[in-house]
UniProtKB/TrEMBL annotation:
<protein>
    <recommendedName>
        <fullName>Transposase</fullName>
    </recommendedName>
</protein>
<feature type="signal peptide">
    <location>
        <begin position="1"/>
        <end position="21"/>
    </location>
</feature>
<dbReference type="Pfam" id="PF01359">
    <property type="entry name" value="Transposase_1"/>
</dbReference>
<dbReference type="InterPro" id="IPR001888">
    <property type="entry name" value="Transposase_1"/>
</dbReference>
<dbReference type="InterPro" id="IPR052709">
    <property type="entry name" value="Transposase-MT_Hybrid"/>
</dbReference>
<dbReference type="GO" id="GO:0003676">
    <property type="term" value="F:nucleic acid binding"/>
</dbReference>
<dbReference type="InterPro" id="IPR036397">
    <property type="entry name" value="RNaseH_sf"/>
</dbReference>
<keyword id="KW-0732">Signal</keyword>
Length: 92
């Protein structure tokens, strides 16, 4: 067997009802705070369309402790958009 030369990164958001949003990260793209914010903007729109009950009643986002997720600009964006965060335990 040989190693694959193709690498891909997938960002996926789901709930108990199934997949809400999938984002294939373009080859060579770093998932930094700017890219992640664009993903969150798309996610909000998808939640509004696909899960209107969550949109009206509020929803909680669970993300890991990656630097892009915990940056000040992302935290401010989530606060401004009234998206609640479920904190991820450190080192898990």
């Amino acid at each position: 067997m040989s190693k694959s030369k193709f690498k891909a990164m997938l960002i996926i958001f789901f709930d108990i009802k199934g997949i809400i949003f999938i984002e294939w990260v373009p080859s060579g793209q770093t998932v930094n705070q700017y890219y992640y914010k664009e993903v969150l903007i798309k996610l909000r729109e998808r939640v509004r369309k696909k899960r209107p009950d969550l949109w009206k009643n509020g929803w909680v986002l669970h993300q890991d402790n990656a630097p892009a997720h915990s940056s000040f600009s992302i935290q401010r964006f989530l606060t401004e958009k009234k998206i609640s965060i479920l904190q991820h335990p450190p080192y898990s």
